[in-house]
Amino acid sequence: METDRRRQIARAALEVLANTGARGLTHRAVDRAADLPDGSTSYYYRSRAALLDACLLDLVRQDEAELNALAPVLRAADEAAFADAMTDVLYRWATTERTRQLARYELCLEALRRPDLATALHEGGRVIRKAVGDVLADLGAPNPQVRAAWLVAAVDGVLFERIAGAGATEPVDRAALAGVARWLTRAALR
Questions:
Q1: Which tens digits make up the pLDDT trace of 103-155?
Q2: Domains defined along the chain, listed by start
Q3: Measuring CA to CA, how many Å separate 37 from each of 9, 19, 32, 43, 171?
């Protein structure tokens, strides 16, 4: 039960981060977002720093779970299947999971001021890059770990453009994202 409550609070805190920014992340705001009695969040996470740590941990766990779910598909993939999987991720992250990505950007900015948060954030990113590099190696990419780092950076850039950048006000076009995914896949594998 306690683990479920902690996860519920962390997810609500990510939502608050996405909707109000880091300055809006308060224990009371999270209590309201999670529909919990006042004081619930501070019972589980005494400080704002602890709450931010919980956000980051939940975000990394969500990313790892998603990557683990995709791993069997990606391991058996060819170039086209890899591009299709990337299209699905890009589209989902830019639409139904947009809030999670906005919270990620807020955490990245907060990590600039908190080295401990930056360390955890970068470690989570390293795990993702390593897993993508392993898939690229299976697909025959030269220098797969280097290519994975650049591929993840490019995906981050595409998402930022669609979620918070100059293209954020435009509708998300799945066909356009599919074209970008095919282009990025070709670049990573050749």
A1: 999 999 999 998 988 998 898 889 889 989 998 999 999 999 999 999 999 99
A2: 53-189 (1.10.357.10)
A3: 12, 20, 8, 11, 37
Prediction pTM value = 0.89
pLDDT tens by residue, 161-174 = 999 999 999 999 99
Query: What mean pLDDT is predicted for residues 8-36?
Result: 96
Which pLDDT does position 64 carry in this prediction? 84
CB of 17 closer than 8 Å to CB of 107: yes
Residues 75, 72: Cα–Cα separation, whole Å: 5
Q: How far apart are CA 39 and CA 78, in angstroms?
A: 51
Q: How far apart are CA 186 and CA 9, in angstroms?
A: 40
Select from 114, 97, 109, 112 the least CA-distant residue to 59. 97
Task: Give just the sign of the alpha carbon dihedral 164, 165, 171, 176.
Answer: negative
Alpha carbon of 165 to those of 63, 99, 125, 156, 162: distances in Å? 22, 15, 21, 11, 6
